[in-house]
Amino acid sequence: MIPIARPFIDADDVAAVVDVLRSGHLVQGAHVAHFEQACADLVGAAHAVAVSSGTAALHLALHALDVGPGDVVVVPAYSWPATANVVVLCGAEPLFVDIEQATFALAPSALDDALAKKPQVKAIIPVHPFGAMADMGAIEHRAAQHGIAVVEDAACALGAELKGRAAGRWGDVGCFSFHPRKSVTTGEGGVVTTSDATIAARVRTLRNHGQDSGSPVPDFVAAGFNYRMTDFQGALGTTQLAKLRTMTEARRERAEIYGQLLACTAVTPQATPPGSVHSLQSYVVLLPEGAGDKRPRVMATLRERGIETTVGTCHIPLTTYYRTRGRFSPGDFPVTDDVAARALTLPLFHDLTAQDQERVVRALVEILAD
Ligand SMILES: *Cc1c(COP(=O)(O)O)cnc(C)c1O
């Protein structure tokens, strides 16, 4: 079976984790601090705070911005449900907006419509889908005009950039995930990046039971969470981060091969915005127009031929929870309807062979023609 993805774990990673396990110091400590510095340096942010998952990063970012009951937070309709769940978990209301057909990212025109309807928006969470940058220039401009905070859901976008500025350094806060399906893994894990010292301090407090990190005697200044990262995960993150460039380049070469193989087919790869670098967390294509109905059969037939694929990500407003809660129906987010029906994730990982890529594309084209 050609898998959809494969984490890259080498002897360095294993040794780093084993060393920490042998040291007896397992929870958040020097290795987490070291990993945080490496993340801050990579993103170009003044502060990085490591946490237990990408979802925890988003949750704490909203808490640190005082998002709570009565607040509205703009979320793209097409993303992993965590992007919306954290808003609900803060007691606020997600306001879904549609995406762009080519990049799958939040559409600035849909954001304009949303802001005209609901002036009480407190924050926007643009997502960089599969590591392709959202139109941050346009989003930042609107956020500044309306005095709205921006939290980047950069879960898939470590190493991505737009106009030379890294993902995670555009918004007030950037949130990354280190789940095994992401660019760099710590098993589970995440990080919050920011250049705002107050936000960074609040996130540090909230991840650790609300304990005041500046106080000489233990004191608690908020009802916080335990969203800490373990020290063996911090050590793993550091050795993983050292390989980020190599791993991303390997995926980029393979993405270029897919691009050539798909060029004369009716299958369209996700577009990368001009002036941006895609981190290529996943390689997602759109099946030909009208082929959405065929997708389950395409995926099942590919599987029979030893090729694993998945759908893209989720149409959040049409999941049972949000559909019921917001009374959404097909047609409310027409571009998301279309992309969510036609998207297909192809296998992409550092040592995928060119022969296997040819096999994938040949099988896909044959099945679609059938
Ligand atoms: C993976 C992902 C998350 C959640 O990250 P976890 O580390 O799994 O909690 C959130 N948003 C997006 C866009 C993701 O891809």
Structure in words:
By secondary structure, the chain is of the alpha/beta class. 41% of the residues lie in helices and 15% in strands. The protein contains 13 helices and 15 strands. It has helices at residues 11-23, 30-43, 54-64, 82-89, 108-117, 136-146, 197-207, 231-241, 244-262, 295-304, 320-326, 334-342, 354-369, and strands spanning 47-51, 72-76, 78-79, 93-97, 121-124, 149-153, 161-162, 165-166, 173-177, 190-194, 268-269, 276-277, 283-286, 314-315, 343-346. The strands form four sheets. A seven-stranded mixed sheet has the order 1-10-9-6-5-2-4, with helices on both faces. Strands 8-7-12 form a three-stranded antiparallel sheet, with no helix packed on it. A three-stranded antiparallel sheet has the order 11-13-15. A hairpin with a 2-residue loop joins strand 7 (161-162) and strand 8 (165-166). Helix 1 (11-23) packs antiparallel against helix 8 (231-241) and helix 3 packs across helix 4 (82-89). The longest helix is centred in the last third of the chain and has 19 residues, at 244-262. The mean pLDDT is 97. The structure holds pyridoxal-5'-phosphate. Residues 53-55, 79-80, 82-83, 127, 153, 155-156, 177, 179, 190 line the site of pyridoxal-5'-phosphate (PLP).
Please state roughly what percent of the residues sit in beta strands, choosing from under 5%, 5-15%, 15-25%, 25-35%, 35-45% or over 45%.
5-15%
Could you state the order of secondary-structure elements as H and E? HHEHEEHEHEHEEEEEHHHEEEHEHHEH
What is the oligomeric state here? single chain
| Helix fraction by DSSP (H/I, runs of at least 4) | 40-55%
Structural class: alpha/beta
